[in-house]
Amino acid sequence: MKKDKDTADKLDTFVWTGLSARGKKLEGEMTGTSIALVKAQLRKQGITPSKVKRKPKPLFGIGAGGQKITAKDIAIFTRQIATMLTAGVPLIQSLEMISSGAKNKSLSKLIGGIADEVKAGQPLAKSLRAYPRYFDELYCDLIHSGEQSGALDKIFDRVAVYKEKAEALKSKIKKAMFYPIAVVVVALIVTSILLIFVVPQFQDIFSSFGAELPAFTLFVIGISEFMQEAWWVFLLVIGVSIYSYKEALIRSPAARHFNDRLVLQLPVVGMILHKAAVARYARTLSTTFAAGVPLVDALDSAAGASGNVIYKNAITEIKAEVSSGNQMNWAMRNSKLFPDMVIQMVSIGEESGSLDGMLEKVANIYEQEVDDAVDGLSSLLEPLIMSVLAVLVGGLIIAMYLPIFQLGSVV
């Protein structure tokens, strides 16, 4: 198993041209560890290779067709092949049918390449490992276990459910994060427009008064003058801050740890992220454990799929405790991250020998809770957006009209 993984990590895609036994010119793509190996595979198929070279790797997952292959595309592909295999369609025929029917040209080419490799005698899991951008280690390990057990259709069905649930959960989390960001962005845009275009009009009027302006009005005018003269500095600071933040998350484990702990402590949003992490943990463990993957290896996969460093570290500690002989529910309790209900359900699952079923129920419960929480957040933030905008716009209006009110009182 490990040897297969090491080999797969070195696989590249090669573009070749050659001649068939009848002298007909052929061309295509093939994966392999070297040009020499690809040439040898072509000769076995009765093709005399004339040119073999490494295929340039696409940027950002965009292939020759110019269309990006998304995680949603892979989830749909998984469901299609699961349905076909369950219906009794042979694997190669299923792959070819999905390839020919795919509207995304890049996806069609990807699946067609996998079909060619399987047709040439390559195990499906090994063929998938050649494309780690689209098929992660968990996906390939599950398919490998399905091939070994002869239950590939059932495994594909489980993987399809896992991918669909993961994509749905990801979509809900994005929706939850979108609203707070939208509040800030809309508030900044509206305030900037007022400061740059509206406040200067009032400033011209105030200059004719010849009287001292209120402190609040002077403060707003000062911000307006800065925005008019150095708006680019404001944009530059925002751009540099966003870039530095992203780089810190990529390069610094300490920054990533701080960020992930901070987002879990945010009001409302933090609660949603907690529930999402528990749902991901339960769904991954349920899928892998039911597929015959040992619990310790399943915990490895769950740690990788957690999506949060705090949960990843906690699951790694749970794995260490389980490896040393402790029950998983006790290890989860020691982490102080998982709710009592989850721990109790895991405990019942361990005692009754139905851990995968219990974990699936936990995943279903928490995915539904995330869904409800996101809907609740949407309802909560709609009046909040209006309130924030009202305070900003109202504050600017008061600052501009305050001198006029004072002038009226003097008269």
Keywords:
cell membrane, 3 domains, mainly alpha, single chain, T2SS_GspF_dom, 411 residues, Receptor-associated Protein
Structural class: mainly alpha
The ordered H/E elements are: HEEHEHHHHHHHHHHHHHH
Number of helices: 16
Main sheet: which strands, in order across? Answer: 2-1-3
Count of the domains: 3
Task: Give the beta-strand count.
Answer: 3
Radius of gyration: 29 Å
Question: What spatial form do the alpha-carbon principal axes imply?
Answer: extended
Query: Per CATH, what is the topology of the largest domain?
Result: Receptor-associated Protein
* CATH superfamily (homologous) name of the largest domain: Type II secretion system (T2SS), domain F
Question: What's the architecture of the largest domain in CATH terms?
Answer: Up-down Bundle
Mean pLDDT: 82
Extract low-pLDDT stretches.
1-10, 59-65
Name of the CATH class of the largest domain: Mainly Alpha
Distance between the termini: 90 Å
Biggest sheet details: 3 strands, antiparallel
Proportion of residues in extended strands: 5-15%
Q: Can you give the helix content as a percent range? A: over 70%
Family: Belongs to the GSP F family.
GO cellular component, one term: plasma membrane
Protein name: Type IV pilus biogenesis protein C
GO biological process, one term: protein secretion by the type II secretion system
